Amino acid sequence: MTEETFVPKSNINFPFKTASDWMDFDRRHLWHPYSSALHPDPRYLVREADGIWLVLEDGSRIIDGMSSWWCAIHGHRHPAIVGAMQAQLERMPHVMFGGLTHEPAISLAQRLLSRLPSSLGHVFYCDSGSVAVEVAMKMAVQYQIASGENQRAHFAAIRRGYHGDTWKAMSVCDPDTGMHGFFGAALTPQFFLPAPPIAFGSAWSDDPKENGLGALEDLLRMHGKKIAALILEPVVQGAGGMRFYHPKFLQMAHALCKSHGVLLIFDEIATGFGRTGKWFAMEHCQVTPDILCLGKALTGGHISMAVTIASKAVAAGISAGEPGVFMHGPTFMANPLACSAAIASLDLLATGDWQAQVEAIEAQLTVELESARRLPGVEDVRVLGAIGVIELDRQVDMEKAHRLARKTGVYLRPFGRTVYAMPPFIIDPDALSQVSAAMLQLAKRV
Fold first, then answer.
1. Which CATH number does the domain housing residue 385 bear?
2. Is 125 one of the annotated active-site residues of the chain?
């Protein structure tokens, strides 16, 4: 084989002159999430975002019914968050966190810890939610090793759960019905429990065969010594089907884990910061985990950031063992720009009326989605906080759903058998009615 000199070439004419030029390049070269590189799904060119609105290339507007994957709780381009980021840009966009610190990181940690139980005392900054889960799992294993429990290298999780797309996080997502089942044997085998069977708001049963705790008792009795931690999404299972389950399950699971030396990790990346009507979903069950993962709405959806918060006991255990430090350190850890955005977002929550907003969204969605129960093929309708779900008896046609966005004036991204919305908290009643109508239309047509 003869050597060839590498000469960069391009048949792309810059600058692009029309929207179709941009979209043509996108279709040929950009690989979007959960999509084919060669046969891309329908997509829209967004020119700008403001409040609840996405402004498309032709000037038309559609409502962001997803809060851009559940994070833009205050709406897009909120002036308080934008202003905080602009001010931080002028001072220090980034500095490494190894051996250095800065006021935004300290101020953000203070705000977070002031909202959490006192046993959660150590904040580790991450780049994204999936990374926060990876960090939590590493913390759990390192804690167990430091405690002399070297054999505790596996995790327990509940089916229908989702914890991210990175490698270790995939291993604790549902291995059969989850989106990562394809990777199968390439992932570390973990222990999986049935999804909690009693729905949020339903009557609780103390029978372990009926409440799902019998399976956890059996697992811990048989394999507890191999398990570092139980990881789950408290109360709301997000991408695994938008299921809402009884908080009592978490209370009982916490007690069982504690009795077997198994740590408890709460993945609140989707539910944190008001989405379920509480600051954190764990408030529904009054259970404090050993390790907590937060992300998505942390910065109000303005820039990527997440945190893993460890209990004082976990931090002390890791620090007391070998090598005496936690073995993780992202390049953009505690990025000052992201910290500033998060501080502004938390201050908006602390001083604003988000609880009344979420209560109003819950009440309106409950009324307006009720008629979906009478539609053919609808198996369930459920609402909790600012989350509305219509579950169908069939897979949703994603392509058809996307193509309806212009007609309905609402961007929704259904998945699996669910048509759902997680609108920004600032949405007004008329716009929310438009979201409800779009959900009903999708349930009829996809």
1. 3.90.1150.10
2. no
